[in-house]
Write a structure and sequence with these properties.
Elements: E1 3-11, E2 23-25, H1 28-32, E3 37-44, H2 51-68, E4 78-80, E5 85-87, E6 93-100, H3 104-109, E7 131-138, E8 143-150, H4 156-171, E9 180-181, H5 184-187, E10 210-217, H6 219-228, H7 240-260, E11 266-273, E12 278-279, E13 285-286, E14 291-298, H8 310-319, E15 326-327, H9 328-346, E16 352-358, E17 376-378, E18 386-391, E19 398-405, H10 406-412, H11 416-421
Parallel strand pairs: 6-7, 9-13, 11-16, 12-15, 16-18
Antiparallel strand pairs: 1-6, 2-5, 3-8, 3-17, 4-5, 7-8, 10-19, 11-14, 18-19
Family: Belongs to the plant acyltransferase family.
Keywords: Acyltransferase, Transferase
Pfam family, one: Transferase
């Protein structure tokens, strides 16, 4: 797949950001965000529409982006490292237009073979701008829209709300868009916070050392998996995310046991959105970073090699589930404590840490920019070991994007449970 960049420009807000909003102070949660880019690519197959209409829609994309940036004004600003803030100076978002000679339908029919290549559709490797957008047109008329935003200013919730709001503005009008708020710092008091333990440098591999594979857990298989992972003592059956996380966690333990000759202590860490947990509730759509890492720990007994069952792992995931509510005053303290627990484990060579992230239930498949709902939504392959979960198009299944060292992936994808419960378990 050869992607040819046709143009590159900066898209600025359609009206200036008011002077009282020009300085955005980032919260301690923003500062804890990893130095990566949150990325989404939406795929819209050609549907035999009029080429002139498609050109008009693509023009509308650019215009509506300029309009929506008046609401999401920090994305058009620039990060000030020294003060941990954003200068909302309206310098703009990087906007690329590209083309591909092939057919989008061919790419969609070969999804498992092109996972490492889709990064070409995601947007530019921007340096100063906080966000980048790439619109790619295929020879057949199909379109992909890639969005990349620095994690230091957005989490999954904010990224999802931005793409949804932009789609609404492009398809309908700005009148239909709900106003977001970027005022988290004023709601989360900073006082008497403990020190954050330094995060060990992430283990970044060369592109030829890691492999990303996509495993599909459809609705029927997830129902079977939930039944297998449900214990009579549970007050409710496992969720889709809990069941799939437990299965993948167990399969990764098998890989680790084969590598080290014993069962090791391990953590499965999920990022959790805190917005619905805070009391009193935050007003409106609060954008930025407002999540915490929630690490569940399996303690291995010395010399034992017997694996825990799925019910045990679901129980461990539930033990660390965030409490029902947390006051605004305690949010930052809670986040730092969880972060320190994760960072401490990352610094120990005899503990395996598996990083999960879930974008399930975010409304990505409702992002209609004028071409209808997307046929697929992906994130980008990154050379860091992690497990990313997202909804399937129909909504009742889960796509798991797993990135591992190649030698580990070869064993992981042949795990009996992975093969049994996922449609793409075998190579």
């Amino acid at each position: 797949m050869e992607v040819k960049i046709l143009s590159k420009k900066l898209i600025k807000p359609s009206s200036p950001t008011p002077s009282h909003l020009r300085h955005l102070t980032l919260t301690p949660v923003d500062r804890l965000a990893p130095p990566i880019k949150a990325s989404n690519i939406f795929y819209y197959p050609a549907k035999g529409s009029n080429p002139a209409v498609d050109v008009e829609r693509r023009n509308r994309l650019e215009t509506s982006l300029s309009e929506i940036l008046t609401r999401f004004y920090p994305l058009a600003g620039r990060y000030i490292r020294e003060s941990h803030s954003v200068d909302c100076n309206d310098e703009g978002v990087e906007y690329l237009e590209a083309e591909v000679e092939g057919k989008l339908s061919r790419l969609l029919s070969r999804r498992n073979e092109v996972i490492e290549q889709v990064i070409q559709l995601a947007g530019g490797e921007f340096t100063n701008s906080l966000a980048s957008v790439q619109v790619t047109v295929f020879a057949c008329g199909g379109v992909t829209i890639g969005v990349r935003i620095r994690h230091s200013v957005v989490d999954g919730f904010t990224a999802a709300h931005f793409s949804s709001a932009w789609a609404t503005a492009s398809r309908e009008s700005m009148d239909k868009v709900i106003w977001p708020s970027f005022d988290l710092a004023s709601f989360l008091p900073v006082k008497d916070l403990p020190m954050v333990k330094p995060r060990p440098p992430p283990k970044i591999f060369g592109a030829d050392k890691v492999m990303t594979r996509r495993f599909i857990f459809d609705g029927a298989n997830i129902s079977s998996l939930k039944a297998a992972a449900c214990d009579p003592s549970f007050k409710r059956e496992p969720s889709r995310v809990e069941a799939v996380t437990a299965l993948i966690w167990r399969a990764l333990m098998v890989v680790s046991r084969a590598k080290h000759g014993c069962l090791r202590t391990s953590l499965a860490s999920h990022a959790m959105n805190l917005r619905e947990k805070i009391v009193p509730p935050l007003p409106g759509i609060c954008c930025g970073n407002l999540y915490t890492e929630v690490p569940a720990t399996f303690m291995a007994d010395s010399g034992k090699t017997e694996l825990p069952n799925l019910k045990d792992l679901v129980g461990l995931l539930r033990e660390v589930k965030f409490k029902e509510s947390v006051s605004r005053e305690d949010v930052l303290l809670t986040v730092i404590k969880s972060t320190n627990e994760l960072h401490e484990a990352l610094g120990k060579e005899d503990i395996d840490v598996y990083n999960f992230t879930s974008w399930c239930r975010f409304p990505f498949y409702g992002n209609d920019f004028g071409w209808g709902n997307p046929a697929w939504m992906t994130r980008c392959h990154t050379p860091v070991e992690m497990i990313s979960l997202q909804d399937t198009e129909c909504g009742d299944g889960i796509e798991a994007w797993v990135t591992l060292e190649k030698k580990d992936m070869l064993q992981f994808q042949q795990d009996g449970d992975i093969v049994s419960f996922s449609s793409n378990g075998a190579p």
